[in-house]
Amino acid sequence: MRRLVVAAALVTAWAGQGRADDPAVLGRSGMEQVYVWRDYDAWSEGLALVRAGVHKTDPQMVLRLMACVVKNGDHAVVIARAGVASKTILVIDGAQKGCRGFVTDEDLGMR
Length: 111
Hints:
Layout: H1 2-15, E1 24-26, E2 33-37, H2 40-51, H3 54-57, H4 59-63, E3 66-71, E4 75-83, E5 86-91, E6 100-104, E7 108-110
Antiparallel strand pairs: 1-4, 1-7, 2-3, 4-5, 5-6
């Protein structure tokens, strides 16, 4: 009987959580777009350029590092965990459907 109660509790807990392969909503509160970077290195380089203010004088240097820019609310499937707080995703709807790249967990809200 005790095993049955434990099993039922586990099933109930798992049922409320999204699976890793469920579509995820892209976006952050207050933002209109999500930047999908080619990979971790491109994200890291892009951040350094933005911090240095390069994006203001030569935005192409930052844009070339991006895989695409998607609308807040578009959906993606997580392809792989890219790091502790990042994922490699594949956009599955919207104007950038098919775009594959890197996002931080801040830009990824699981449904």
